[in-house]
Fold this protein.
Amino acid sequence: MKIVFFGAGAIGQSVGGWIAQHYSNLFFVDRGDVAQTMKDKGVTLYEQNKKAEQHTVKLNVLDDISDIADADVIVLGVKNFSLDGVCKLIKEKTGDKPVIIAMQNGVANQEIVPKYFSKVIYCVIGYNAWFDEPGVLGYQKKGPLIFGTINNELQEEMKQIAAIFNKGVETIIVDHLQDAAHSKLIINLTNSVTTLTGLGFREISDMSIFQKLLTNLLYEGTKIARAAGYKECKIGGMPP
């Protein structure tokens, strides 16, 4: 299988970097300085609090979008606001041939990607990652990734792709995608509070109030998801 990561943010480069060490037929497509940095330096990865153990992975970077035409699997690592335009571009180059893996947070991708492709696997991300600088990437922990489809179709394709991904990072297939996607959506609610309060950039004046805000926010999100009929899907390493 030729696997192409389209869009190389922190999640795309970390997942792709882990797999690339064990699977050579894997490629990246991005633009400008990002693509050039990957060509020149690869990606340097380290686990949180273990920067002394960082290691560099060489990456295969495609020069032209036309080079994805023969891809068997295309992993979409772009944000939701770019997703429609990217899907349209890829469809023009590949038709409906490849299996698409959508790695966006939330559920908006479930409305966008199927407009262009019939074989879509959704991937819920169970870890955080960040760039210290271009080409140097830290991660909270290694995975897991959660694969699922809307109606539990594409079982054989998911097994085949998960077997490749599992060479580099734990990849799980579930039969309750919507529970997993909405559970991660609730966890991501905390990003709004940590961003508004400047966590990591300024001192939090009252940690007990900060904790109360986070707890109440998660509780409200949980009540909404339950009212909509979703159940908890525990995502490894993240709070229930």
Summary: The two ends are 35 Å apart (CA to CA). The first strand starts at residue 3 and ends at 6. The mean pLDDT is 94. The chain has two domains: 3-175, 181-227.
